Amino acid sequence: MRLCVPNAAVLGLFCRGCLSRTGNWTSRSFNSLPRKMSRWNSEEPCSPHLNVILSLLMSRKQYGTENVILSDIKKPPPHVFTSGPFVYADVLDYKHLRELIVNNRITWLVHYSALLSAVGEANVALARKINITGLHNVLDLALENCLRLFVPSTIGAFGPSSPRDPAPDLCVQRPRTIYGVSKVHGELMGEYLHHKYGLDFRCLRYPGVISVNTPPGGGTTDYAVQIFHDALSTGHHECYLRPDTRLPMMHISDCHRATVEFMQAPECQLSLRTYNIAAMSFTPEEVAQEIRKHLPHLKVTYNPDSIRQTIADSWPVRFDDSNARRDWGWAPAFGIEELVADMLRSVRDKRTNEGLPVS
């Protein structure tokens, strides 16, 4: 049975900044909900007009400009604001989120709001508020309005006691960052609500995601973005990880495509609610060597940061994504060679368009 909702709409939540306040939220409970919500089991065919509200990380090309409403808590850059609908959405403002859902007849909710690993460790209280309180707002709204819910997870959901090479979908998870703890909490809450109330909860564990349009934002894998900008500006990159630190990585295009394909997969094909997705795994020295095939002058020095290095050493070396490949046909398009060539081309074009020098 294919689960479809007519005139579907998706609300995407994306956090780019730190919130300096909290609100007084009305107490809500799962106890008043029926054991199963049959509205998720509708066999009514999907409307061809699919309204989708996604975060700034999702591609409008999949659905059409007017069918995608982007959201953030910060003023969007001009090219984002003029590219289609945009709304302000604070994941801690339950009442406003409810208004957005009701007024736009939302049926899919895509929840990206989070503080990442290193930033979260620097402000645990704020990370707990955004990553966990914000998640519970989203879960409550999804249940209250019978929404389908996508929440990304992370390589950081694993810990030093997890299998590292490769890390399977189901194994011991004991992360040692608030970011990882909050993501494991999200995975388990989503699975619990799926089994108890029938919530169509879907979650992908992302590896390090590499994109020209998203600047480093406090993640442990951010060196793999910064190194391309440094290679084309100064020709020198100082890496905060050891040269042999191997971590799973993915091109942003593969990340977008995996997310959309997973969201569109018929529920009957899914054997899990949370899947690993993989593309490649490399070390700082390996990506530097690949960049030097294009820019031989690149110099990389290593000055490991104890906090980020400790985090990286607790994460998997590789993901086992065999379940995603089997259940819904996941297959990456970018390997390290394709990723490096595309990133260098994209960063060069971006710097040229911004009037910045290119070495």
TrEMBL record:
List, alphabetically, the CDD domains matched: TDH_SDR_e
Per the UniProt record, which EC number(s) apply here? 1.1.1.103
The record's GO molecular-function terms, alphabetically, read:
L-threonine 3-dehydrogenase activity
Give the record's GO biological process terms.
L-threonine catabolic process
The record's annotation in InterPro entries points to:
Epimerase_deHydtase (IPR001509), NAD(P)-bd_dom_sf (IPR036291), NAD(P)_epim/dehydratase (IPR051225)
The protein's enzyme class: oxidoreductase
Pathway note: Amino-acid degradation; L-threonine degradation via oxydo-reductase pathway; glycine from L-threonine: step 1/2
Q: Coiled-coil intervals in this record? A: none
What catalytic activity does the UniProt entry give for this protein? L-threonine + NAD(+) = (2S)-2-amino-3-oxobutanoate + NADH + H(+)
Q: Which domain of life is it from?
A: Eukaryota
Q: Which residues form the NAD-dependent epimerase/dehydratase domain?
A: 80-278
The UniProt similarity line reads: Belongs to the NAD(P)-dependent epimerase/dehydratase family.
Q: What does this protein do?
A: Catalyzes the NAD(+)-dependent oxidation of L-threonine to 2-amino-3-ketobutyrate, mediating L-threonine catabolism.
User: What name has this protein been given in UniProt?
Assistant: L-threonine 3-dehydrogenase, mitochondrial
- Species of provenance: Acanthochromis polyacanthus
